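For the sake of clarity, the format in which proteins appear in this thesis is described at this point. The fold follows as a row of integers, each naming the local backbone shape at the matching residue. One such record is shown here in full, so that the layout can be seen directly:
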Amino acid sequence: MSAIVINERQDAMQARLTLAAIILTYITLAILYAVRTPAWQAPDEPAHYNYVATLARGEWPVMRAGDWDSAALESYKAVRWVGVTDEQIAAIRYENHQPPLYYLLAVPVYALSDGDLTALRLYSALWGVVIVLCAYGVGALLFPARREIGLASAAFVAFQPMHLHILASVNNDALGWAVVAVGLWLGVAHLKRVPVLGQPVTPVMLGLIAGIGLITKATTYFMAGLLGGVVVVGWWLDGGRDTRALIAACARYLLVALALGALWWGRNIIVYGWPDFLGLAVHDVIVADQPRTSERIDALGWGGYLTELGRTTFNSFWGQFGWMGLPLQASWYAVIAVCVTLLLGGGLLAGWGAWGQSSRRQRWAWALLALTIVAAIGAYLYYNSEFQQYQGRYMFTLLIPLGVWLACGADFWRRRFTAGRWPVLTTALIALPLLTFALYLIWRVIPGGL
């Protein structure tokens, strides 16, 4: 056996062990966040919990007048949910319009634990394992000879504090982000024609993931469009000559995706009427007293509004815990901004040098990640076009592309200052600061601050 083969096997084994360590560390952190975060001190957690409770009683949630009471919510937040009764918690039902899959899968956990909040938080946190694995998978597909990129990407999504905070709460974002993660992994594999778990990625598989997203959360819907594009681009990269093959592939993709989505949309049309197939129209009527973007612009002017939007979005993306009531110290945000800027800059420099040497398939894989970032930001701005809801977590569908970008930046600076040595530093530059920060926050800041 040649030395090259032996080294390759050793590198592969080391990567698997490092990934296992990242996952075990993530699970430990998620348990800490689930246990040490005070009850109901995560965004919208009571409403998501009550959706599961309704299903567990054998009923189907329906959005009705009275499910949203802003005055009551503000009063509960003001007392940090201390002394809020079970009856008051049970009346918070403004997430009843959400697609059902996350909640249906949570019902057995609810039943076995007698509705224990921590058990449901840990159920949510398990979806984070899927996200971490897919982050590594995407990085490894893009850089098969540089496993440190995939490992650093996995560490980023595993240890990002705000990501941990939401994953370790009862919230359907967890499954939604996992669906996007799997979609990216399979999409990149399809574009590069790399088998996944020994099987080629087919339009049916992509349609299944897109369809699961359609019955999980509206924030994943953009992936249905992107994965449909992946089917078309994959056909074109294969030569693009057989039009009948393209039509057949698109038909299989759409049939599977729309069959799943139609189950939920049909139910909503029956309950809420046409054309409210998402239940969002009735939701917007019921939560009509939420702060409006237009009112904020009138109060601050465009300059003040955009400044507030940018600052709050950045802060809440990296860490503004509870119901946005526990921001970090300003100095922390400044340090984060400097570090992120350096890594993003390094990633751009690395990409600039590598683009000309990339194959067509590699470029289209990069395009999928870039379009995911654009779609996530576009969706976020759309959400804020009517209601004032600038919470950075709404853009966590872009975490894997961002993680790969930051990992490339860390690798660029590592190569520059070590003459290409010590590839483990690429992962360490991402993992160690975030891990330390996440531990500090859950041990010293979040329990007392909330």
In short: The mean pLDDT is 95. Residues 3-36+116-171+289-449 form one domain. The longest strand covers residues 320-321.
